[in-house]
Amino acid sequence: MSEALVLCRFVHFTVVLMLFGAWLFRPLLLKGDALAVDRHQARLARWLTAVALVSGVVWALLITASMAGSASAAFDPDTLALVLGKTFFGQVWRWHLLLNAVLVAVLFTPWRASMPLRLGLSGLLLATLAPVGHGAMLDGLSGQLLILNQIIHLICVAAWLGGLLLLVMILFQPSEPIPAILRRFSGVGYALVAGLLITGLINVRVLTGQWWPAPLFTGFALILLIKALIVLGMLGLALFNRLRIDDCEQRMGALRRSVMLEWLLGIGAVAAVSLLGTLPPMIAG
After folding, report:
1. Eight-state DSSP code of residue 218
2. pTM, whole model, 2 decimals?
3. Within a domain: 284
């Protein structure tokens, strides 16, 4: 059951992050009309929101089964109502699923053309992921600040991952000069990397009592190390592409492969986070 929960967390986090990030980056990367990209993005968004809703429901069922200690309890209405109504996870998750359902409905109505509405709903959907997992470890003001820090962290991750997805689509169907698009992306990327590093270190410090947990090659610390190495790989690719902006249009094939690899590494980092959320952090002392 734990393996299924990790997989479900991975799928759900990935699609929610990409939804928000791709919509956030659309006006930042493309200044004019890009009908082909917008059409592909709209089609992909409908699929992503549907996958998010299904995986969100499955996540609730798995948590119910885990809390009750029985797989059959996930389909017992009374047990499910108890988890959704009386636990902290359930109270957050009811709003999360409602937001997801509303977003799915919006994408099949004329309101889908409203970028503020889509971005607002997907932002709230992303924010309600923050209290799930380690974000709920602390009470009171400390807990609220930890959740706020986690929201900022998720926004940075979503912007980077979703922005890379949108960039891949643009590179296959460019409507504007690619160097200008890459400069806009890298300009925002500096702020995202800073936000990721600062909020990530705060999370580690609060959860473990150290700036980096030890022993290094065991459990929580090992998965955290793998995630950090993946992010470093992404930064290396981003820096390489930044230094080669001037001749990017002469190496479009290599550029597409590089950005796709960076995006896939981001997916790998989300997989590591999905596993981290199910592991107890190692508290110093």
Report:
1. S
2. 0.87
3. no
